[in-house]
Design brief:
Layout (H helix, E strand, L loop, with lengths): L4 E5 L5 H6 L1 H8 L6 H17 L5 E8 L2 E12 L6 E10 L8 H16 L4 E3 L6 H9 L14
Helix pairs in contact: 2-3
């Protein structure tokens, strides 16, 4: 299914596509104790912050087929909270709904891993919302394991 899907560095013109996926990222967060508008603002602000970072090594990659974008991944340097070593992290990964199940996410994660290895990192870190069972299963199938769990209780 991944035939003819290419991975390339994102261009400034890809920002529109990336932000088009923001509502999907906000939706799958499943944070029912927050208003939808708050979650959407958080997601938009986070994308803006991640794409605007220039102080750490980073890369944003686009998966496309026939010059149509299908998904993106953003990876950057991160300080591991256990070992204090610099490693890679994937703060953003999204696949367009029409491209779900085509292997796009897997290709993007492979590209992020290759980038992290090229940087000399031993670890690749990511965070996923606890309620996003689909994403958690996806990452576990790629070999990721839970290290810590952040918990919250609405009062």
């Amino acid at each position: 299914m991944t035939d003819n899907i290419t991975i390339r560095n994102a261009l400034e013109t890809d920002r529109t596509f990336i932000f088009e996926l923001s509502p999907r990222l906000a939706e799958v967060a499943g944070l029912t104790w927050h208003a939808d508008s708050i979650v959407q603002k958080m997601q938009d602000d986070y994308i803006t912050e991640m794409l605007g970072q220039t102080s750490v090594p980073r890369v944003t990659l686009i998966a496309e087929k026939n010059q149509v974008p299908l998904g993106f991944v953003h990876a950057r340097a991160h300080k591991d909270s256990i070992s204090d070593e610099t490693c890679g992290t994937v703060p953003l990964l999204a696949v367009a709904p029409a491209a779900q199940g085509m292997g796009v996410g897997q290709l993007l994660m492979q590209a992020a891993e290759a980038w992290a290895k090229k940087q000399g990192y031993r670890l690749l870190h990511l965070e996923v919302f606890a309620s996003n069972d689909k994403a958690r299963g996806f990452y576990q199938n790629l070999g990721f394991e839970a290290e810590t769990l952040h918990m919250i209780k609405p009062l």
